[in-house]
Design goal:
Helix 7 (876-887) runs parallel beside helix 14. By secondary structure, the chain is mainly beta. It contains 14 helices and 69 strands. The strands form 20 sheets. The chain has a six-stranded mixed sheet with strand order 4-13-12-7-10-9, covered by helices on one side. It has a six-stranded mixed sheet with strand order 15-24-23-18-21-20, with helices on one face.
C-alpha cells in the first residue's frame, strides 16, 4: 500500500483556483517525493593478507549512513566491487547478526563481485539497513593477492526511488609467507658404542617442509641445542644425488650447527624435505642422555620458526658369554628316538650396561652334518620370558629372539642352558661337534663361546612285529586238516642292517607234543637261502640263513609263510612266539594267537523209500520234490555255506533236471544254479548266513523233473552233500523211480447231452505205479463228427441230434467217449442252461483300479427249484472224480491248526491236496493271503481248467501262479485292473474274495432286499450287493457286531473256510467229503 501511495504522490497534480477581478483561473502544480541517500566516510579501508593463515576480512565502511525524507524502510541494496575487481580472490560478505539487521539477507556473485541484499516485503528500517551495510566485509582469498586498490560502490532503493551511488576504496597489501618446517612425533634412539662410533641414525624421517608462496628455499640450519658434546656429537649430511637437488652442507663441530645451502636458491621444497630427513646423528660420547635437534629453513626473505626433535643416546657396555668345561655326551637310541642332550647347562651371560638382550645365535660350527644334527629350544614359561627360536637344518644355526628385547639376562641364561643337541640318524656320524654361542642386546654382540658334543652310535636291535587279531585253525577231529599260515601280516625290520642271520618260531602256550606242527617251505623265489628245522618235542622251529645273507624282505616272507597244523581233538589256543637275530642282537619276542577249533562235520539223513516221478508220455511232466523229509544236523555250526544235489546214478543229460525255488520265507538267502551237463545243482548262501532250518527247508524243496518226451525210466540216484565252509558232510542219497504212463480213463465212456447244452467229462492218466493224475486240461481232444458235437477242455456241447465219438489223446495213450446228442435237454444236469450261465467272455467294465469288481451283468437266475448251484465252469463230474482220487492219498496235519477255529476246514483242504503248508509243519492260518495264492486255491479246489475267454494281464508273466490266474481270467472269474494288471502279490481283501466266488457260485431266488446288511459296508461300496447276497446264502459270515470289514485283508483260514463251504453246497461233493 505504501508503494502505491508513493506512486500516486509522484504523479499527483494539485489544482489551486484564484479569484481576481479578471475572473477565475487554475494553476497546475506537480510534487515529487525525495529518494533515499547514502553517505560514506572519508579515506579507505585497509586489507592485509595473512601469513600462513587465513586473511582477516575488513569492514568496507563501518561509518556509512542511510537517510530518506519520504520513507522509513528500504527494499534492497547493491554492494559491488566496481574498480579492479578480481574474480576468484575478491569476496564481499554479509552475516545478519540477528538483532540489528531485521530480515535482511544477501547473496554474492563471485563472478561479478556483486553482493545483493534484500528485505522481504521491504520492511527493514533505515537503521537496520545502515547496520547491515556497515557490517559488509572485504577479503582476498589468494595466497599472493593482486594489490591494486579496489573501489566498492553502494546503492539502496525503497522500491520506487534508488539512491545515488556512494563509493569507498579498499587498499590491498600482500604478505610474504614464512616457510614452515615440522618435525614428526616421538624420539629417535641412538646406541653409543662406549667411546667408539656406532652406526649413525637418521634423526627424523617424517619431517616436512612447506612454503605457501615459494616453491624453493635458499638455506636451512640444523643445530644440537641441548646437551651438545663438542668433538663427540656429529650431525651428518650426504646428498643422495637423486632427491636432494643442489643442496650442500657444512658442519661446525664446535657449535653443533649444520648449515645447508642451495646455490641460487633453486632447490625445491621436496628436495629440502628429503635433505633434512636424511640428516643423521652419531656420537662417541660415553654419557647417555638426550640431544635436542632444532631445524629452521629460509626462503631468503623470512626464516621459519624452529622445530625440534629429540635423540635419546644410550651407551652400551659389551656382553660376555662363558661356557662350562668338558663336553656334552650324546648316545643314539636303540629302535627309538634318541634322547636329546643339553649342550651346556652351566653357560653364563653377563653385561655391565644392559639388563635385557635382543637375540642369540647357537650354531654347530665344527663337524656339522645336515640332515642329522638338530639343535632345539622349548620355552618353558616365565623363567624364559618371551624368547622364541627357529632352526635352520641346512646350516645348523638356531636363532633365538625376544620380541621387543624384553627378556632379562636371567631368562636368556635359562634359555641357553636348555638348548639341546640330538642326532636323528639311525647310524650317526660320530665326529665330535663344536657348538658356538653368541648373544646381542641390539647394539653390541658378545664374543663367541664354544662347547663340544661327543656323538656315540648304538647298534639297533632287529624287530619282529605280529599283526593284530588271531588265526583260526579248524582241526579235523584227530585228523590233520589243511595247515594255516599263522600270520600273513607279520613284519620284520632292522634299522641298521639289511640282513638277518636266524630266527625262532615257538609254540609257547598249550603246546601238544606230537600233535602240533609248525611248518615251513622255502618257495624258492621270495625267501632267499633260509632253511628250517622243527623240534616236535619242544614245538620250536629254527630258521637260519647261511652267511646271514638273507634280506629283511626275505625273512619277512619266510616268517609269513610259517604254518600251523594239528591232529589234536582238543580245542583251545596256541601262543606262537617269533624272535629274529642279526648276529649281534636278538629281537624281543612277538606273539600271535592260533585259535584251534575242532569241528564235527555236518550230516544229512534222507528219508526211507524212494520218490516216485510220473513221467509224461509225449507230454510235459510235473516236477517232484526229491525228499521232503531230509534232515540236516551239525554239532559245531548253526549255519551252512553251500550244498550240492547231484544225479549220481543213471544221469541222463538233456532230460534230467534238478530245480530249486526259494520261497522267500523259510529259506534265507539260499540261491542255486544247475549244470545241465553234469546234473549237479549247487546251492549257496552268501556269507554263509543261512541257518540249518533254512537249509533243511531248501533241500526239502529241491525237485526232480525229466524234460524228455519219452523219458528213460531207469531209477535215478540223487546225492546230497552240505558244507559249512570248512567241513563237508558225507553224501546222503535218495532214489527217484520213474513211472511210465500205462493208460487213460474217462469218468464216463458214454455221454448224453441235449442239443445246445454242455456236459463234462474228466480224463485221468494211470501210471505204472497205479498213480492217478487228472490230465483233462492237458489232453488233445477230437470229435469224429463235428456236426453232432464239439468239445473244449472236456466240456462237450451238443449241436445236432445224433451220435459221435469224442477222443482224448495224452502222449501215446487215448480213450474214446461215445456221445449221444438228444433233441431236448437232459434233466438233472449239473450245469445251468446257457441262458443262465456266467459266460467266460464277460468282462468287468468298472473303472475302479483298486479291486476286482464284479462284471456289470450278473449271471441270470437259474431254475426256481434250485437255491444254489455252480456256474458251468465247475464241472461236477470232473470235480467229484478229482476229490475221490485225492482223498485216498493225502494225510497231512499241521502243528498250528489243531486248536484253531477253522481246523476242520483246514484238515479237509489238506486231505484234498488243496494245501500243503510250510516245510516246518505249520499252516499259519491267521496269516494274510495274496491274490495269487487265492487264485491257486480256487483252481485246485474246483478242478477248474481254461475257458474260452482271452483276457491278457500284463504283470503275471513271471508269477509262479500264472497258470491258475490265466484259468480264472479265461473263465471270467477275474478281470484285473483297468490298466491291464492283476497285482498277484498284493494281499486280497474280504470284498475281493466275495467278488471272485460270485463268479463260481450263483445264489438263486434271493432278492437284494432279503440280503443281510452289515453296518460297515457303505451303500456306495462297489461289492455291497454281492457281499450281502453271499452272507444270506451262508457262504460268508461277518466279524461280529454286524460288521464285515470288506477292505480288511483275508486270512488263510478264512479263505479255506469259504471254499469248503462252497464245495459242501453240492450234495454229491458234500457226501464225498463226509
Amino acid at each position: 500500500m505504501k508503494k502505491l501511495l508513493r506512486k500516486l504522490m509522484v504523479l499527483l497534480t494539485i489544482a489551486l483556483t484564484f479569484q481576481t477581478g479578471l475572473g477565475n483561473y487554475i494553476t497546475p502544480m506537480s510534487f515529487a517525493a525525495a529518494g533515499p541517500v547514502l553517505s560514506v566516510t572519508g579515506g579507505s579501508a585497509s586489507f592485509v593478507a595473512g601469513d600462513n593463515s587465513s586473511s582477516t576480512p575488513v569492514a568496507i565502511d563501518s561509518g556509512i549512513t542511510v537517510t530518506a525524507d519520504s520513507s522509513t524502510t528500504l527494499e534492497s541494496a547493491i554492494v559491488a566491487i566496481t574498480g579492479n575487481f578480481h574474480a576468484g580472490e575478491d569476496v564481499l560478505s554479509y552475516i545478519n547478526d540477528g538483532l540489528t539487521m531485521g530480515n535482511i539477507t544477501a547473496s554474492y556473485n563471485a563472478s561479478t563481485g556483486v553482493l545483493t541484499l534484500t528485505s522481504a516485503g521491504a520492511i527493514a528500517t533505515l537503521a537496520q539497513w545502515q547496520a547491515a551495510l556497515r557490517s559488509i566485509t572485504y577479503t582476498d582469498t589468494a595466497i599472493t593477492p593482486i594489490t591494486a586498490m579496489r573501489t566498492v560502490s553502494f546503492t539502496v532503493t525503497d522500491g520506487v526511488n534508488t539512491s545515488s551511488t556512494a563509493t569507498r576504496t579498499v587498499t590491498v597489501t600482500d604478505t610474504d609467507q614464512t616457510p614452515i618446517v615440522t618435525t614428526s612425533g616421538g624420539s629417535t634412539h641412538y646406541i653409543s658404542g662406549n667411546s667408539t662410533t656406532s652406526t649413525p641414525v637418521a634423526i627424523d624421517g617424517g619431517l616436512t617442509v612447506s612454503d605457501l608462496d615459494n616453491t624453493t628455499l635458499s638455506s636451512a640450519t640444523v643445530s644440537i641445542t641441548s646437551h651438545f658434546e663438542a668433538g663427540k656429537d656429529v650431525l651428518g649430511y650426504t646428498n643422495d644425488g637423486a632427491t636432494m637437488g643442489n643442496i650442500t652442507a657444512s658442519y661446525d663441530a664446535l657449535t653443533g650447527v649444520l648449515t645447508l645451502t642451495s646455490t641460487g636458491a633453486t632447490a625445491m621444497l621436496a628436495q629440502w624435505q628429503s635433505a633434512l630427513r636424511g640428516i643423521t646423528f652419531s656420537s662417541t660420547s660415553a654419557t647417555p642422555g638426550q640431544r635436542i635437534i632444532s631445524y629452521a629453513v629460509s626462503d631468503g626473505m623470512k626464516t621459519s620458526a624452529a622445530a625440534t626433535h629429540t635423540v635419546e643416546v644410550t651407551v652400551i657396555v659389551p656382553l660376555s658369554l662363558t661356557t662350562s668345561n668338558g663336553s656334552a655326551s650324546f648316545v643314539a637310541g636303540d629302535n627309538q628316538i634318541s634322547n636329546p642332550v643339553a649342550i651346556d647347562s652351566g653357560i653364563t651371560v653377563t653385561a655391565d650396561s644392559s639388563t635385557t638382550l635382543e637375540s642369540a645365535i647357537v650354531a654347530i660350527t665344527g663337524n656339522f652334518h645336515a640332515g642329522e644334527d638338530v639343535l632345539s629350544f622349548t620355552n618353558k614359561g616365565p623363567s624364559m620370558g618371551d624368547i622364541t627360536a627357529s632352526y635352520n637344518s641346512s646350516t645348523g644355526v638356531l636363532t633365538l629372539t625376544s620380541a621387543s628385547s624384553t627378556a632379562t639376562f636371567a631368562q636368556w641364561q635359562a634359555a641357553l642352558r636348555s638348548i639341546t643337541y640330538i642326532n636323528t640318524a639311525i647310524t650317526p656320524n660320530t665326529a665330535t661337534r663344536t657348538v658356538s654361542f653368541t648373544v646381542t642386546d641390539g647394539v653390541n654382540t658378545s664374543s663367541t663361546a664354544t662347547r663340544t658334543v661327543t656323538v656315540t652310535d648304538t647298534d639297533q636291535t632287529p624287530i619282529v612285529t605280529t599283526s593284530g587279531g588271531s588265526t583260526h585253525y579248524i582241526s579235523g577231529n584227530s585228523t590233520t586238516s589243511t595247515p594255516v599260515a599263522i600270520d600273513g601280516g607279520l613284519t620284520v625290520s632292522d634299522l641298521d642292517n639289511t640282513t638277518l642271520s636266524s630266527a625262532t618260531v615257538s609254540i609257547t602256550s598249550h603246546f601238544e607234543a606230537g600233535k602240533d606242527v609248525l611248518g615251513y617251505t622255502n618257495d624258492g623265489a621270495t625267501m632267499g637261502n633260509i632253511t628250517a628245522s622243527y623240534d616236535a618235542l619242544t614245538g620250536v622251529l629254527t630258521l637260519t640263513s647261511t652267511g646271514a645273507t638273507a634280506m629283511l624282505a626275505q625273512w619277512q616272507s619266510a616268517l609269513r609263510g610259517i604254518t600251523f597244523s594239528s591232529t589234536s581233538a582238543t580245542p583251545g589256543q596256541r601262543i606262537i612266539s617269533y624272535a629274529v637275530s642279526d648276529g649281534m642282537k636278538t629281537s624281543a619276542a612277538a606273539t600271535h594267537t592260533v585259535e584251534v577249533t575242532v569241528i564235527v562235520p555236518p550230516s544229512l539223513t534222507t528219508s526211507s523209500g524212494s520218490t516216485s516221478f510220473l513221467a509224461g508220455d509225449n507230454v510235459i511232466s510235473t516236477p517232484v520234490a526229491i525228499d521232503s523229509g531230509i534232515t540236516v544236523t551239525a554239532d559245531s555250526s548253526t549255519t551252512l555255506e553251500s550244498a550240492t544235489v547231484a544225479v549220481t546214478g543213471n544221469f541222463h543229460a538233456g532230460e534230467d533236471v534238478l530245480s530249486f525255488i526259494n520261497d522267500g520265507l523259510t529259506m534265507g538267502n539260499i540261491t542255486a544254479s544247475y549244470n545241465a551237463v553234469t546234473g549237479v545243482l549247487t546251492l549257496t548262501s552268501a556269507g554263509g548266513t543261512a541257518t540249518l532250518a533254512q537249509w533243511q527247508a531248501a533241500l526239502h524243496a529241491v525237485t526232480y523233473n525229466n524234460t524228455a518226451i519219452t523219458p528213460i525210466t531207469t531209477t535215478r540216484t540223487i546225492s546230497f552233500t552240505v558244507s559249512d565252509g570248512t567241513n563237508n558232510s558225507s553224501s546222503a542219497t535218495k532214489s527217484v523211480t520213474l513211472h511210465a504212463l500205462s493208460s487213460l480213463k474217462a469218468t464216463s465212456n458214454t455221454l448224453s447231452v441235449p442239443t445246445g447244452q454242455t456236459a463234462s467229462v474228466a480224463i485221468t492218466a494211470i501210471f505204472s505205479n497205479q498213480a492217478h493224475i487228472d490230465v483233462t486240461s492237458s489232453v488233445t481232444w477230437t470229435v469224429r463228427n463235428p456236426a453232432i458235437a464239439n468239445v473244449t477242455s472236456g466240456r462237450v456241447t451238443g449241436k445236432t441230434p445224433g451220435s459221435t465219438v469224442v477222443s482224448a489223446v495224452y502222449g501215446t495213450q487215448s480213450v474214446d467217449i461215445n456221445v449221444t446228442v438228444t433233441g431236448k435237454p437232459v434233466s438233472g444236469s449239473e450245469s445251468p442252461s446257457s441262458s443262465s450261465t456266467n459266460t467266460s467272455s464277460s468282462t468287468n467294465t468298472s473303472n475302479s483300479i483298486n479291486t476286482d469288481t464284479p462284471a456289470e451283468s450278473n449271471p441270470s437266475t437259474p431254475p426256481a427249484q434250485e437255491t444254489k448251484t455252480f456256474y458251468a465252469l465247475v464241472e461236477i463230474d470232473r470235480l467229484a472224480a478229482y476229490i475221490q482220487d485225492a482223498l485216498g492219498g493225502n494225510s497231512v496235519t499241521f502243528q498250528d491248526a489243531a486248536s484253531h477255529w477253522a481246523s476242520k476246514d483246514i484238515l479237509s483242504a489238506a486231505k484234498l491236496g488243496i494245501i500243503n503248508g510250510y516245510p516246518d509243519g505249520r499252516f499259519r492260518p491267521d496269516a494274510s493271503i495274496t491274490r495269487a495264492e487265492f487264485s491257486t486255491l480256487l483252481v485246485k479246489a474246483f478242478a477248474l481248467r481254461s475257458g474260452s475267454g482271452t483276457i491278457e494281464l500284463r504283470d503275471i508273466q513271471t508269477s509262479w501262479a500264472r497258470d491258475s490266474i490265466e484259468i480264472l481270467a479265461s473263465n471270467g472269474v477275474i478281470n484285473g485292473y483297468s490298466d491291464g494288471t492283476f497285482h498277484a502279490d498284493h494281499r486280497i481283501t474280504r470284498a475281493e474274495l466275495v467278488s471272485m466266488i460270485s463268479k463260481i457260485m450263483i445264489f438263486q431266488n434271493i432278492q437284494p432286499g432279503d440280503a443281510a446288511t452289515f453296518v460297515d459296508v457303505a451303500p456306495q461300496h462297489w461289492a455291497k450287493e454281492i457281499i450281502e447276497l453271499a452272507a444270506k446264502a451262508g457262504i460268508i459270515e461277518g466279524k461280529g457286531q454286524n460288521r464285515f470289514e470288506p477292505d480288511a485283508n483275508l486270512t488263510r483260514a478264512e479263505a479255506l473256510t469259504v471254499i469248503m463251504h462252497m464245495l459242501r453246497e453240492n450234495p454229491a461233493i458234500n457226501k464225498l467229503l463226509g
